[in-house]
Amino acid sequence: MINEKNSSDNSSAANSHLEGEEKNKEEQRLPFHKPLAAYIVADVKITDPEQFAEYRKLSIAAFEAHGVKPLAAAGTTERLEGREPGLIVVLPFDSMDAARKFYESEEYRKARSSREGAAIMNILIVEGV
């Protein structure tokens, strides 16, 4: 027969263990502050420059509609390791959720659909500081 005190102690110990795991995850992050921001990072290889021009026009309109000011946009890149990158774009946001909302917004959805066949994209959302 299980006594209630032992059962309660076991539940408390399990909760403490889970809290410890969450703390360990936080400690495994790079030695910066907790994430305060998020960034959309795009690596773009243009395959149809004429069609891509329409995407560029619509994506800039989406940036403006959402108050997004790129930190980097198709500037010079220097490969240090790995494959040769395409054009790199970095967009700042207050959170992962805000970045996702922009990506899924009606304005950016129009830009994305205009890009089909015009570029090969690798787009990520990255937590940052």
Short key terms for the protein model shown above:
alpha+beta; 129 residues; four-stranded antiparallel sheet
Verbal overview:
With 129 residues, the protein is α+β, with helices and mostly antiparallel strands. It has 2 domains: 31 residues; 92 residues, Alpha-Beta Plaits. Helices cover 47% and strands 22% of the residues. The chain contains 4 helices and 4 strands; from the N terminus they run αβαββααβ. Strands 2-3-1-4 form a 4-stranded antiparallel β-sheet. Helix 2 runs antiparallel to helix 4.
Radius of gyration: 22 Å
Please give the CATH architecture of the largest domain.
2-Layer Sandwich
Strand content: 15-25%
Largest sheet features:
4 strands, antiparallel
Considering DSSP H and I runs of 4 or more, what fraction of the residues is helical?
Answer: 40-55%
The figure for the number of domains is 2
Distance between the termini: 52 Å
Spatially, the strands of the biggest sheet line up as 2-3-1-4
Query: Total helix count?
Result: 4
> Overall 3D geometry?
globular
What is CATH's topology name of the largest domain? Alpha-Beta Plaits
Give the total of beta strands. 4
Low-confidence stretches: none
Given the helix and strand composition, which structural class is it?
alpha+beta
